[in-house]
Amino acid sequence: MQILRYFNHNGIIFPEDQNVLHHSNRGFAYGDGFFETMHANGMEVQFYHAHWQRIKMACSVLIYQLPLEINDDGNGLKTQIIKLLHRNRFFQGVRVRVTFYRNSGGYYYPAEQKLSYLIQLEKLVESKYVLNKIGYQIDICNDIYHPKLPWSGFKTLNSLVYIQAAEKARRMELDDCIFADKSDYLIEGVAANLMLIKNTKIYTPPLSEGCVDGVMRNAILKLAPNIGMSFKEKRLKTDEMLAADEIWLSNAITGIRWVRSFRTSRFFHAKAELMTNEINKYCFS
Question: What structural domains does the chain harbor?
């Protein structure tokens, strides 16, 4: 028998087979909103403060107002997430997605700035961060260009550019595609920040290139000295990928995905293992 699961819409918990979204929903009609994905384990949300800061920044840039019940330094939202984890009896690794969308009314000219929210949960195979056993094969999305906008650092509901890149990767039998601009400067992967490892230095594109302001990206940069590494934000090109010792793709759900091959180059993953261990120690010790 299939177990019934639950989601949270504006602070009310519903069974997963309940319909709550109206056809006038602005997230559906205009992509007017954004989402945040988080990793939860043992009734704790990893890097929650960093996620909350990114939510607040998105609201500031996109001119949104958070609901009063969660706009209290994030404690209300965290409480809602934990209640939903309990209701679903999810006590191990969980992917949490919180979708924010502007309330209905207006067309291109919104009637208000207030947001609604919806919290969904999905069980993960692993409860902690585990490095992939088989390295990724990647290439460049040289015909799909990633826009550089004031809100590029957030995960907006307009994700067509990422979907098209993922489709391209699937057709090419790749694990990921890397966005680059028309001058060949690298940006990010489909659902991950990009990092190149050379000797003891981590290089990653600056946010000004249009990449997502990743929570795991920032955690890795903070933890780098713990494993004898340093980092540098730097505009990167394809030839620097070919010459790297390791290539990492990072996000808050999976941690680090190491890359096995890019075109003619092959890569190692020893430092990716060290960093994954450091992330788990920071999160779960």
Answer: 6-123 (3.30.470.10), 136-284 (3.20.10.10)
